[in-house]
């Protein structure tokens, strides 16, 4: 009994070898049939099957990859046509062709000269699955990009309403100021509605912050003070669109608005080797750390005492955090330093250069 | 700030784990920049611009080489320049110390102006 | 003691600028950004010049001139000419790529993590070659002004730079480095003019005396090869093309708002360097008259600091010495903090796989290695060692950047092969020139300053290997984008 089990168990080293080859074929095909790895995949398949020739073919055009002595063109074309029409394995000794069906759709064929049939269909299924996997991988990154666009911060209705109300209140008493404010408002709208690109420079972002704050200051009757400290070398760094402004907006609405008396916000930016650091600090009412943690973890904020005006508190921050993580990776998420009554500091720390992150 | 509680550092759970991890995975979620999708006409224009800039850069580089190697060759070959003096300086020293910098500046300024002209057109 | 005091004051001032000096602006004056964008190009050019003018220029140039003759000024010409090449070839396109460092550019253009790592290793090689003479200069200057042993000066300098970076002294690098350019210029130029006036007519005549000796020959020579023209050309090639590939300088162009601004900044740097390089020559010329003893002692790199005391004895002399020493220290501080930042960036960001770049750790490690390498390097001429750093940059990053920007055919394989061949050939030759002495002739030149053959070799390897392969389809677009005037370019 024991003896039989041992005999049935295949050679361990051989299993490992086969599995490794399968993995490598999968890696070769990660860009699909048209990718760089197709030729290498064909070579590996030839070795795996012990075949004379292995051909990977797309639906039309010349074969994508040939390993081993090449076939006659007409011979191969006929074979492939037969396999495609019948959507089953086609035999024309010494050739065999198996159609590759990826996600239910015919997308190519694997043709082999001199190979065992049983192995062949299993291998074709494997190749099809690798191709499917490649397509999914591409889809996933497209989804990430689409997500990024949907997540792009949206202008808050709260701010829109307040800004218009402030301007309206000044039209009679101080028409000049009302006109400047209206200009600021137009600038702000143009920036936040602009659809070009997913990234902007730190300088552009600061411009948006500045116009936003001009409007807020009018509301606060100038009892809000802003300090900007920027090392010039971070101004041209490209970052995701509307990252700083929501942080500042959060500081104003949830840090300074509930606080009696004057308040101040400081925005500072500097280089830290290959990283660019931007800090937004306010001396407002602060947040309960547990609440901040919940917001960043994506949980719906409870209407507990920690969130004085409840509702949207922190949603802007969570959105910024998620976009930063999507673009730069998890280690570059927001860092919030806060405690009730101690103000809040939000730190954005991102690489100065990231492949693909280019302003406009 | 007196009496107020100390601030606490908070991050999202993903960031916390990523920061405490010893190694970072070399994966990137977003797709890498795909080649632009501009039409053939724009592509041709970009190519033409590139070739003009390349010719300009080659010319500037040629001028720079001529200045550096020419001046040093001249000073090495014409030893007579060392015996003539102007304003108390041996002419060869004057050429080495005084003449090279303004000429370098001229080459650079001409290049920048030409490059900007090409970009404006 | 005055010297130490001056150095201490300078250090405190640059720390203050580094940590707090980012211009604090209230938003009540609404156009902070407009103002800062207008100011930035000037500061940017000064910062580049400040980071670039190192101990090699402040101490080494006058020292080498005293030792080897007027021809040493070709180094200065090459250092400056490099920015013509930068303006013409690299500044604009590099800015458009968005890349901050050379490894970033390799990533942008070739999309390969392997080449990124290879580039980071080369960054380390260049930075260490460049740091050693800086630390040597600091050790020598501290020895002169306070009498401490050489090694104490080197260790002290290493700790000071590390501490200043760790405390945030490079947070606003642009302002710190710009400040240092002004300090260097003033602290070298003002004493120089003072010395010219005080030297007296006879000495001035004597300094400008042209004789038949090799000293007066307007070409430079290396290790007595007897091949001055070849040596001059090799040095010119190394310094000019080396400036194109110096990693710590290239990253400063990232500060420019647009590619057009970056190009103009490079032109500004030429002006700033041209002005500065007039003054080291003064120390060299006067040193020949007043301090010929240094040549026999072998400590020619100290001439800039020794000279004021020789010409103006007494109190004023020691004040001048202190000023010059502070200028030399500024050169050391700005260049080596720039170098260490670039080195630490490569070490922590590109080479380490730790999740958060440990910048401070990397700075400390980089400084430690540099100090250890500098301790036995007292007899190496500052300019010669800096020349090697330039040679390595010229035979690695210069071809990578130039071909990457101007030729779509560059492939990963080509870049890898060219970088590897360039770095091995250039460092190998420098090493060989330290270890062997092939006697007079062209061979000694080709070892002491290998750029004449390593640069063409690296270009050839990159081109030939690239031609054997096929660049990816997106390569052309990646190249074209480097030259496309964006909407912002019209500014």
UniProtKB/TrEMBL annotation, chain B:
<feature type="transmembrane region" description="Helical">
    <location>
        <begin position="93"/>
        <end position="112"/>
    </location>
</feature>
<keyword id="KW-0812">Transmembrane</keyword>
<keyword id="KW-0472">Membrane</keyword>
<feature type="transmembrane region" description="Helical">
    <location>
        <begin position="61"/>
        <end position="81"/>
    </location>
</feature>
<keyword id="KW-1133">Transmembrane helix</keyword>
<protein>
    <recommendedName>
        <fullName>Integral membrane protein</fullName>
    </recommendedName>
</protein>
């Amino acid at each position: 009994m024991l003896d039989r089990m041992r005999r049935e168990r295949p050679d361990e080293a051989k299993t490992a070898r086969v599995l490794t080859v399968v993995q490598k074929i999968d890696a070769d095909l990660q860009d699909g049939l048209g990718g760089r790895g197709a030729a290498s995949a064909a070579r590996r398949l030839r070795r795996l099957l012990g075949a004379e020739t292995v051909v990977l073919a797309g639906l039309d055009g010349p074969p994508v990859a040939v390993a081993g002595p090449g076939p006659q063109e007409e011979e191969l074309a006929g074979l492939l046509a037969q396999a495609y029409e019948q959507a089953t394995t086609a035999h024309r000794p010494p050739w065999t062709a198996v159609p590759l069906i990826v996600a239910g759709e015919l997308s190519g064929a694997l043709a082999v000269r001199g190979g065992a049939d049983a192995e062949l269909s299993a291998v074709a299924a494997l190749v099809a699955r690798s191709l499917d996997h490649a397509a999914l991988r591409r889809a996933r990154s497209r989804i990430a990009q689409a997500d990024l666009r949907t997540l792009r911060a949206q202008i808050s209705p709260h701010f829109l309403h307040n800004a218009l109300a402030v301007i309206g209140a000044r039209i009679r008493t101080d028409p000049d100021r009302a006109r400047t404010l209206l200009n600021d408002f137009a600038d702000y709208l143009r920036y936040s509605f602009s659809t070009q690109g997913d990234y902007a420079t730190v300088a552009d972002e600061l411009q948006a912050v500045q116009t936003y704050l001009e409007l807020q200051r009018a509301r606060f009757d100038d009892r809000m003070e802003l300090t900007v400290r920027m090392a010039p070398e971070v101004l041209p760094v490209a970052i995701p669109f509307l990252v700083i402004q929501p942080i500042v907006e959060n500081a104003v609405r949830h840090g300074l608005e509930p606080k009696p008396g004057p308040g101040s916000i400081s925005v500072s930016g500097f280089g830290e080797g290959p990283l660019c650091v931007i800090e937004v600090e306010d001396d407002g009412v602060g947040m309960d750390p547990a609440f901040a943690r919940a917001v960043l973890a994506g949980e719906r904020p409870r209407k507990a005492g920690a969130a004085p005006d409840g509702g949207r508190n922190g949603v802007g921050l969570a959105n910024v955090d998620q976009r930063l993580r999507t673009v730069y990776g998890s280690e570059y998420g927001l860092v919030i330093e806060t405690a009730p009554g101690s103000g809040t500091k939000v730190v954005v720390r991102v690489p100065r250069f990231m492949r693909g992150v280019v302003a406009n | 700030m007196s009496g107020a509680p100390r601030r606490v550092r908070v991050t999202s759970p993903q960031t916390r784990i990523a920061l405490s991890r010893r190694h970072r995975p070399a994966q990137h979620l977003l797709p890498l920049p795909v080649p632009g999708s501009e039409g053939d006409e724009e592509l041709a224009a970009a190519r033409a611009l590139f070739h003009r800039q390349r010719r300009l850069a080659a010319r500037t580089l040629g001028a720079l080489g001529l200045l550096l190697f020419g001046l040093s060759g001249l000073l090495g070959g014409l030893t007579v320049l060392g015996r003539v003096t102007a304003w108390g300086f041996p002419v060869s020293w004057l050429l080495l110390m005084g003449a090279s910098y303004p000429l370098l500046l001229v080459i650079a300024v001409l290049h920048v102006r030409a490059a900007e002209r090409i970009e404006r057109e | 003691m005055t010297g130490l005091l001056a150095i201490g004051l300078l250090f405190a001032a640059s720390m203050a600028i580094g940590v707090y000096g980012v211009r604090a602006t209230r938003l009540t004056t609404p156009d902070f950004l407009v103002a800062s964008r207008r100011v930035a190009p000037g500061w940017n050019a000064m910062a580049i010049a400040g980071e670039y003018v190192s101990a090699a220029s402040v101490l080494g140039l006058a020292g080498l001139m005293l030792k080897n003759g007027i021809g040493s000024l070709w180094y200065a010409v090459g250092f400056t000419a490099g920015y013509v090449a930068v303006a013409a070839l690299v500044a604009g396109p590099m800015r458009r790529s968005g890349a901050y460092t050379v490894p970033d550019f390799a990533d942008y253009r070739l999309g390969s993590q392997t080449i990124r790592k290879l580039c980071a290793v080369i960054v380390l090689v260049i930075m260490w070659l460049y740091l050693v003479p800086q630390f040597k200069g600091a050790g020598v200057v501290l020895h002169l002004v306070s009498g401490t042993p050489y090694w104490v000066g080197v260790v002290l300098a290493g700790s000071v730079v590390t501490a200043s970076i760790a405390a945030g002294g490079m947070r606003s690098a642009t302002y710190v480095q710009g400040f240092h350019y002004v300090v260097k210029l003033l602290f070298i130029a003002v004493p120089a003019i003072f010395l010219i006036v005080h030297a007296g007519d006879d000495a001035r005549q004597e300094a400008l005396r042209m004789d038949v000796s090799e000293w007066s020959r307007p070409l430079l020579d290396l290790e007595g090869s007897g091949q001055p023209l070849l040596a001059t050309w090799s040095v010119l090639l190394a310094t000019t093309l080396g400036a194109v590939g110096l990693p710590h300088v290239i990253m400063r162009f990232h500060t420019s708002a647009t590619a057009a601004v970056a190009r103009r900044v490079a032109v500004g740097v030429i002006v700033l360097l041209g002005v500065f390089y007039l003054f080291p020559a003064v120390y060299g010329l006067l040193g020949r008259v007043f301090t010929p003893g240094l040549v026999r002692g072998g400590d020619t790199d100290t001439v800039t600091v020794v000279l004021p005391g020789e010409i103006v004895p007494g109190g004023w002399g020691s004040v001048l010495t202190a000023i010059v020493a502070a200028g030399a220290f500024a050169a050391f501080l700005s260049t080596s903090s720039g170098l260490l930042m670039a080195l630490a960036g490569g070490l922590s960001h590109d080479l380490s796989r730790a999740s958060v770049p440990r910048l401070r750790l990397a700075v400390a490690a980089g400084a430690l290695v540099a100090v250890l390498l500098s301790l036995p390097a007292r007899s190496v001429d500052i300019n010669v060692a800096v020349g090697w750093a330039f040679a390595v940059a010229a035979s690695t990053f210069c071809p990578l950047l130039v071909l990457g920007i101007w030729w779509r055919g560059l492939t990963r394989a080509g870049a890898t092969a060219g970088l590897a061949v360039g770095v091995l050939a250039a460092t190998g030759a420098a090493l060989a020139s330290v270890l062997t002495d092939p006697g007079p002739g062209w061979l000694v030149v080709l070892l002491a300053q290998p750029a004449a053959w390593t640069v063409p070799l690296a270009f050839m390897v990159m081109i030939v290997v690239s031609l054997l392969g096929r660049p990816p389809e997106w390569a052309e677009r990646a190249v074209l984008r480097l030259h496309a005037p964006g909407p912002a370019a019209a500014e």
